[in-house]
Amino acid sequence: MTLYKNMIITLTEAKQHLNIQESFLEDDTLITDLILVAENVIERDTQHTINSIEISEGSVPPMLKHAAKILVSTFYENREAVIIGVSVSEVPFSYKYLMSSYKKYTIK
């Protein structure tokens, strides 16, 4: 498994959020990749790098860490582009709410 430095959340934190036992190792590479995807999404949505947020705040803010956990769990549980035969609704005060405080707006 490739080790990545300075991830927004650790593999252990992600597995705890997913209710996956630490001893289950089969999905570690997948989960690590999903953490990196979550970081990319957060950076795109906020228009800030994780490092710049970390530097200005002193560490990664808990709201962004939780947003990353939400994204990782969403991507982990929904691995396909479509879901057939289910009703879906967005959870209020979830990812979008957490991100709203960090979004960088620009006027052109």
Describe the protein's topology.
Elements: H1 11-17, H2 28-46, H3 50-57, H4 62-77, H5 95-100
Helix pairs in contact: 2-4
Describe the protein:
The relative contact order is 0.17. With 108 residues, the chain is an all-alpha fold. It has five helices and no strands. It is globular and about 40 Å long. It has a single domain, classed as Hypothetical protein yqbg, CATH 1.10.3230. The N and C termini lie far apart (43 Å).
> What structural category do the secondary elements indicate?
mainly alpha
> What is the domain tally?
1
Order of helices and strands: HHHHH
Total strand segments: 0
CATH topology: Hypothetical protein yqbg
Strand content: under 5%
Instruction: Give the overall form.
Output: globular
Can you count the helices? 5
Instruction: Compute the separation of the termini in Å.
Output: 43 Å
Average pLDDT number? 86
Largest sheet features: none
Radius of gyration: 15 Å
| Portion of residues within helices | 40-55%
CATH architecture: Orthogonal Bundle
Question: What are its keywords?
Answer:
single chain, 108 residues, mainly alpha, Hypothetical protein yqbg, 5 helices, 52% helix, globular
Put the structure in a nutshell:
The protein has 108 residues and is mostly helical. The protein contains five helices and no strands.
